[in-house]
Every structure is written in C-alpha cells, then in structure tokens.
Amino acid sequence: MNFSSKLLENAVNEFGKLPGIGQKTALRLVLHLLNQEDAAVERFSDSFIQLKKNIKFCKNCHHISDHEICEICTSPKRDRSLICVVEDSRDVMAIENTQQYNGLYHVLNGLISPIDGIGPSDLTVDLLVNRVKETEVAEIIFALSATMEGDTTIFYLHKRLNDKPLKITTLARGIAFGGEIEYADELTLGRSIATRVPYETSLSR
User: Fold this and answer.
1) Are 182 and 94 within 8 A, CB to CB?
2) Which of 15, 127, 165, 183 could form a disulfide with 26 if both were Cys (CB 3.0 to 4.6 A apart)?
3) What is the CATH T-level fold of the domain 57-203, as seen in this structure?
4) Is the predicted pLDDT of residue 180 greater than 90, yes or no?
C-alpha cells in the first residue's frame, strides 16, 4: 500500500499489529481518528496509556481489575465453594454475561501448548493449586475452549488436582470441538455451565 505520508504509514502499521486488523481496516481507523477533534483523539490515546499504567490483575483470580482484588472476588454474593477455571479475562466476561454462574474464577492466562513453547510454568497453575489447598473449594469447573490445547490443559490440571477432596467438572459439550468460549452464544454457554458433567464422564464421550 502506497502512503502519501510517513506519519500516516506509521500509524497504520501500528493499528495493523492488532489482532484481526488488516491494513485496509487499519487505514480506515486512522483516517477516522485523523478527522476527529484533537480533544477526542487525546481522550482516545490517554485511555490506553492509563489502562497500561494502572490496570491490575486480581491477586486471587488474575482477572483484570482496577483494584488489587477484583469485584467478583470481594462480592459477598458469590459462592466461594466454586471456582471456574478459564483461559483469560475474555472468558470471564462471556460467562458473566450468561448470568448462569455465581461462583469465583481462576484465570490461567493461556493454555498449555508445547508447539508454541507454552508449558504449565507459564500459566497460573501453581497459584490455582494453592488456592484449592488454602480455601474451602468444593468444585472446580473447567471452562476451557474445546480445542487440543484446552483438552491438554484440562488433563494436566486434573492430574494436579485429582488428589484433592473436591468435585471436578467440565462444560457439557454444547460447544463444538474447536470452538472458543468467548465466541459461544450466551444461551449455549449458559446451558453448558448448567449441565456440566464430571470430568471423568466427559472422557468417555
């Protein structure tokens, strides 16, 4: 793509680094911002600067938060006997939108993927195991994407937690294999949570 300005090209290239954004879309976004008032563009850029500088990750569950402990973990209305294990904060938001779950969460910050060089030590696995040891958890729900990486992660976590006196369940297979939690519609995802099954049972399906 030919640019009439190096400044324009640099801005387009930066937007193009975002996931799912091609050069044409990046150019459209940059031109849109270029046509906005200076104050609007400054608010836009400042929101990301403040996000990067001040965002926190909950010390308990690692969900994105404005505080050291997130609002979900501090809420007295949540069922503390349940921990739903998810890949990242996008999945927390997706599950919260279903209004079918009232327990706590644990964000792994990824999935085990040997081909990508991501192992258990790169995730918050040890912190999850410690939470289970130190709190009165009755059930762990694996809400990970139905992919090879998701299944590998669940298998590993099950081995790490299997000696603990708790119930281990996984989402019912309302979500097709290869599907990701964040893209599932709310009805399907909510039903998958409500009809979750013991992990051992899911292996035989």
Assistant:
1) yes
2) 15
3) Dna Topoisomerase Vi A Subunit; Chain: A, domain 2 (3.40.1360)
4) no
